[in-house]
Amino acid sequence: MAPRTPTAPTAAARPVFQVGDQLELFVKEDLTLNGSYLVREGGYIVIPRAGRINVAGLSREEAEPRVREFLQKTQLKEATVIVERTPGVASGTGAVGAGPTGVPRVMVFITGSVPRTGAHAIPAPAGKSVGVYEALLISGGLTKFATLDKIEIFRYDASGRRRKSVIDMRPIMKGEADDPPISEGDIINVPEKVFGF
């Protein structure tokens, strides 16, 4: 009986960032840090006002806490960080934007009051748009502390800048309003209710 090698599937499931990758960074507490960052020849990205952070050879699960700790030391008291390879430039992971069954997928980044934050490849069959509420359900739903009337969508405009829009999810959940379709690269932030004492 051949010895088990548990590390192989883990490596396949968690591709690492490499020099030349374009990474998308989202920091909930400081939107000025958001943007695309190139992994440079030295294996690092350069974040304005923060400096160099080495990410080459790290998986997303390893890079996110490193960036968070670095920002908390240099810029912020608290940092909620998402780091993801920009869709379409993944290295060594096969066809980007299509799942194992060949169904097209839309990559969105979800943060805030949800059970599973991070990047989500949402199945989007050809000819069918997927709404924001639908995408949140597919990715794990909302927590009981979610602020439903102030869901924030950060989306690239024609000039390449991210613009924020706010939607009220309550009429959508009741079937009284259309569910606005998601777009590739959207950041969906679900704020948490603030309780006063």
From TrEMBL:
Q: Which UniProt keywords apply?
A: Signal
Write the protein's name: Protein involved in polysaccharide export with SLBB domain
Highest taxon in the source lineage: Bacteria
| Molecular function via GO | polysaccharide transmembrane transporter activity
Q: Which organism is it from?
A: Prosthecobacter dejongeii
Domain Polysaccharide export protein N-terminal stretches: 16-83
